[in-house]
From TrEMBL:
<keyword id="KW-0812">Transmembrane</keyword>
<dbReference type="InterPro" id="IPR036365">
    <property type="entry name" value="PGBD-like_sf"/>
</dbReference>
<feature type="compositionally biased region" description="Basic and acidic residues">
    <location>
        <begin position="498"/>
        <end position="514"/>
    </location>
</feature>
<feature type="domain" description="PDZ">
    <location>
        <begin position="110"/>
        <end position="178"/>
    </location>
</feature>
<dbReference type="Pfam" id="PF17820">
    <property type="entry name" value="PDZ_6"/>
</dbReference>
<comment type="similarity">
    <text>Belongs to the peptidase S41A family.</text>
</comment>
<dbReference type="Pfam" id="PF03572">
    <property type="entry name" value="Peptidase_S41"/>
</dbReference>
<dbReference type="InterPro" id="IPR002477">
    <property type="entry name" value="Peptidoglycan-bd-like"/>
</dbReference>
<dbReference type="InterPro" id="IPR055210">
    <property type="entry name" value="CtpA/B_N"/>
</dbReference>
<dbReference type="InterPro" id="IPR029045">
    <property type="entry name" value="ClpP/crotonase-like_dom_sf"/>
</dbReference>
<dbReference type="GO" id="GO:0007165">
    <property type="term" value="P:signal transduction"/>
</dbReference>
<dbReference type="GO" id="GO:0008236">
    <property type="term" value="F:serine-type peptidase activity"/>
</dbReference>
<dbReference type="InterPro" id="IPR001478">
    <property type="entry name" value="PDZ"/>
</dbReference>
<keyword id="KW-0472">Membrane</keyword>
<dbReference type="InterPro" id="IPR004447">
    <property type="entry name" value="Peptidase_S41A"/>
</dbReference>
<dbReference type="GO" id="GO:0030288">
    <property type="term" value="C:outer membrane-bounded periplasmic space"/>
</dbReference>
<dbReference type="Pfam" id="PF01471">
    <property type="entry name" value="PG_binding_1"/>
</dbReference>
Amino acid sequence: MSEENERHESRFGEGRRININFFWFIVIILTSIIATAVITALSLEAGSEKAVNVGTDTRSEFAKLYNVYDTINANYYEEVDREALIESSIQGMVEGLDDPYSEYMNNEELAQFQESVTGDFEGIGAEVMQEGNRVIITSPMRGSPAEEAGLEPGDEIIAVDGESIEGWTTQEAVQLIRGEKGTDVVLTIVRGEGDPMEVTITRDTIHLDSVTYEEVEGVGHISINRFQEGTTEEFENMLNTASEDGVEDIIIDFRYNPGGLLDEAVSMINQFIGQNETVLYLEDNGGERTEIKTSDEKNPNTDDFNVHILINEGSASASEVFAGALDDLTDATIAGTQSFGKGVVQRTVELGDDSLLKYTNTKWLTPDGSWVHGEGITPDVQLVNPDYYRVEMLNPEEVYTEDVSNETVPSIKVALDTLGYEVDDFNETFDASLTEAVESFQADHDLEQSGDVTGETSTALMSDLRDYINSNDAQLNYLIDYINGDYTEKEIEAYADERAQHLEIEERENHAEQDAGNEEEPTEE
């Protein structure tokens, strides 16, 4: 083999050597890059409807969700609002918990939620809850348009300005009920087994001073409306004012307080309990308990007080945390009626687009390890409200006249008796003596003396009774009389019972599955 042939074979053994002009080399490289980009773009475009499926291999439980999304997005007969699909799927997921305290909030709902933390908003001033597909009033706020209009815990809202809210969430209902100060909203409500009735309420700016103080017959009365940002500071100031006034007995009033910020409740307990004391436990879904302890020295002024805590069926969550802690750790007296019974705590997660997830993550237990959920706190001194607090709201369109007999008639009798008109008995018959009482009431109000209860007579009767209730706080007066020694414990309980004989007191429902009120740590209910 010649030397030339050897060289030739060697070149092929090492690989073919090709000489290419540099310009064409650059052209080939750029063409390859462009071709790759075009192929990639076309592939993504062709598969855009499936792009959402990223991750389904590792999260197979979402395969059905992705499949539904893809199917609707590709085949629905109209253009689909994809954001609305995603929002509603999140909402549905949270609703699947069947938990009235867990909810997903969009940016508008979040703004309202944040308002409730600071205590300033425009509306009617009432707490509402979801109970199945119903929206229920749990607590009309003190001094609010809702309270002045006569709304009561347990009233079901079925329509707002004539629009049915059946199946709505509480947030959806609240958005419709709230509005500009000075405007009216008409709520259609159902109370108990009664017929629907319309209540017109004028909206106002609701600023919740969460704590108020007054001295009544030598007793310091501190009322806590809710636990919001700054409540502890307000509470401490009122405690110090009571101390400066020289009062020895204080009433801490949590009636119709639905709860709020858990950290505020803990720091308020700290006013009475020394540093590093366990005031409640949080228990997770694995049964592991975390102790929540006080962090500061207690307020020395509280050593001088005899403490009485006033609660009712509207006292929930953080109110019960406070009452439960002082009941277990001090000699405070609990008075009133059974509290609501909300023994769970919520946390919040901000989702980065001005939306928020609020979900129940723990139980809370009193220092002694009691769980009040669905049961509430039982008072040491039972002080039931008088009959006139349970009067059925009269529908002005209904006519009640002599010889009529139904379950509403006793409410008419109790209302007139409370306002000072003579009533012979409290049965269900509209008799001649009731006609006379109605005529006397009509004469005092320059109304036609027909003896019938309807129209303006019904409205005036409800208005007068509401004014009477607002100026005669029966439970508070009972407790003050007991504190001042006018009655023994048994005597004041008997007196309260005696004034609650004619209208049935509804039996307490178990709230373990249908609850109201709210509370978090350290966000809001």
